[in-house]
C-alpha cells in the first residue's frame, strides 16, 4: 500500500490506483489516490493521527532524495530546512572524479556547493518537481 495521491504532481496524476510491482511481483494499491490534500488533513484530524512533519518543512513528503528525481529548488529547500543533511550531498559531490556535479538539470550541471551558497536564488529560478521513483512504478497498467 502507498500514500500516493493523483493531485500531488502532474506525474502522479497519470498513475494508477492498482499496479503490479514490476520487481517484487506483488500488487500495489494506493487507497487514497483520489483524495486531495484537504481530505487527507480532515481524515488525519478526525482520527487524531500523526501528520508527516515533512509537510510543514517542504509542503510535501519526499519519497527519495535521488538527484535524478529532484530539481535544484528541491535541493535548495533541503539546504534551508535541513543543512546538515544537505551537506552530505555537498560532501559526496566533492568526491566525484574530475569535479563532476551531483545534479544535472535542464542539460546543465548544477553543483550542490553552489546551491548551499545561495539557496534562495535556486528557489526563485527553478520550480519544485516533486517526482519520485514510486511514480514510475504506478505508470504501469492496472492489474
Please give the structural blueprint.
Layout: E1 18-20, E2 27-29, H1 37-46, H2 54-58, H3 72-81, H4 83-94, E3 103-105, E4 108-110, H5 112-117, H6 119-125, H7 133-138
Antiparallel strand pairs: 1-2, 3-4
Helix pairs in contact: 3-4, 3-6
Tell me what the structure shows.
There is one protein chain. The two termini are 14 Å apart. The chain is mainly alpha-helical and 143 residues long. Helix 3 packs across helix 4 and helix 3 packs antiparallel against helix 6. The strands form 2 sheets. Strands 1-2 form a two-stranded antiparallel sheet. Strands 3-4 form a two-stranded antiparallel sheet. It folds into 2 domains: 65 residues, no CATH class; 56 residues, no CATH class. The C terminus is likely disordered.
Brief synopsis:
With 143 residues, the chain is mostly helical. It has 2 domains: 1-52 and 131-143, no CATH class; 72-127, no CATH class.
The largest sheet, given as strand count, sense and whether it forms a barrel, is: 2 strands, antiparallel
The H/E string reads: EEHHHHEEHHH
Kindly provide the radius of gyration, computed on alpha-carbon positions and rounded to a whole number of angstroms.
17 Å
Please tally the helical runs, counting DSSP H or I stretches of 4 or more residues.
7
Mean pLDDT: 80
Physical arrangement of strands within the biggest beta sheet:
1-2
Question: What fraction of residues sit in β-strands?
Answer: 5-15%
| First-last Cα distance | 14 Å
Q: Count the E strands.
A: 4
Helix/strand structural class: mainly alpha
Low-pLDDT windows of residues:
131-143
Quaternary structure: single chain
What is the number of domains? 2
Q: What percent of residues adopt helix (DSSP H or I)?
A: 25-40%
Shape: globular
Amino acid at each position: 500500500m502507498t500514500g500516493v495521491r493523483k493531485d500531488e504532481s502532474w506525474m502522479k496524476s497519470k498513475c494508477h490506483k492498482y499496479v503490479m510491482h514490476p520487481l517484487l511481483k506483488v500488487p500495489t494499491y494506493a487507497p487514497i489516490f483520489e483524495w486531495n490534500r484537504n481530505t487527507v488533513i480532515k481524515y488525519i484530524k478526525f482520527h487524531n493521527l500523526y501528520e508527516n512533519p515533512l509537510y510543514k518543512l517542504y509542503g510535501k513528503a519526499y519519497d527519495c532524495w535521488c538527484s535524478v528525481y529532484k530539481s535544484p529548488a528541491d535541493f535548495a529547500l533541503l539546504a534551508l530546512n535541513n543543512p546538515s543533511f544537505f551537506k552530505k550531498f555537498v560532501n559526496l559531490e566533492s568526491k566525484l572524479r574530475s569535479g563532476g556535479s551531483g545534479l544535472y538539470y535542464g542539460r546543465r550541471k548544477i553543483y550542490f556547493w553552489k546551491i548551499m551558497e545561495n539557496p534562495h536564488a535556486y528557489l526563485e529560478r527553478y520550480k519544485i518537481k516533486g517526482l519520485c521513483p514510486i511514480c514510475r512504478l504506478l505508470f504501469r497498467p492496472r492489474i
